[in-house]
Amino acid sequence: MSVLVNKDSKIIVQGFTGSEGTFHAEQMIEYGTNVVGGVTPGKGGQEHLGKPVFNTVEEAVQKVGADTTIIFVPPAFAADAIMEAASAGIKVIITITEGIPVADMVKVYDYIKHMDCRLVGPNCPGVITPGEAKVGIMPGFVFKKGNVGIVSKSGTLTYEAADQVVRQGLGITTAIGIGGDPIIGTTTKEAVELLINDPETTCLVMIGEIGGQLEADAAQWYKASGSKKPIVGFIAGETAPAGRTMGHAGAIVGGSDDTAQAKKRIMRECGIHVVDSPAEIGLKVKQVLG
Questions:
Q1: Which residue in the list 24, 48, 248, 273 is annotated as catalytic?
Q2: Whole-prediction pTM value?
């Protein structure tokens, strides 16, 4: 099993012919991901990387049955790209673009909330189900198939956690990079819930950072769920000064519960195995799995 993406996903790339879209689409195809085409308005009918280019997402859905998209559209146009994908019936919308204005994301959030689709991101590394589909910008060679699910706000820490899990002789079911912006589609809680409900995932790694309530919400849901699947947690930004954005636009301490210390306390109270350094993630996963 896997969540969100697998070998059967029919994936298109929005912003396909641009430099970012080309570079990462090439790597996704090389990995074995089922990329069925791409969208660049005005370039429909052409071929790029051996795949058809369409003018609209709707056309890609009709002609190649696309059900998943990855968005590399510049920030000013990315919100429209997300809404276009949702209205065309795409089920999984993975948005890599960084720097989408918050006001635009408010509109997107409102537009898609009653639609039958799932948005991952924006400003995220994507989603990977090792050996099946890499829909993102992560280095595929780091990820090996296994039974550990990863949910992370940080791109680089997603790869770091995966590498450590693999070095312990274990592997990954699906890794979900949810993104670090103030307004994102899939929350930590929702991503954790997907993996808790996945029969193949026997343990989770949850990586958060300062700012917002996402990790606390996920921890409280986990405790209430009564799940016996262990979660190993880490919060980045322990030494960050209050009131300063660190790295991600959403990583800013607004109140007493936004600090790394407060989040770690809440997670521990909810039964999550919290580590104080990212270097301890792999070892802790090995320990909790016995």
A1: 248
A2: 0.96
Our count of domains for the chain comes to 2
Catalytic annotation present for 114: no
- What is the per-residue pLDDT across 165-196, written as a single tens digit (0 to 9) for each? 999 999 999 999 999 999 999 999 999 999 99
User: What is the domain-level CATH number for residue 71?
Assistant: 3.40.50.720
**Residue 96 marked as a ligand binder:** yes
On whether 277 is known to bind a ligand per the annotation, the reply is no
Same domain, 164 and 273: yes
Domain encompassing residue 105? 11-120
pLDDT in tens, 2-44: 899 999 999 999 999 999 999 999 999 999 999 999 999 999 9
From residue 132, give the alpha-carbon distance in Å to each of 28, 91, 208, 213, 259: 10, 18, 26, 32, 37
Tell whether residue 222 is among the known ligand binding residues. Answer: no
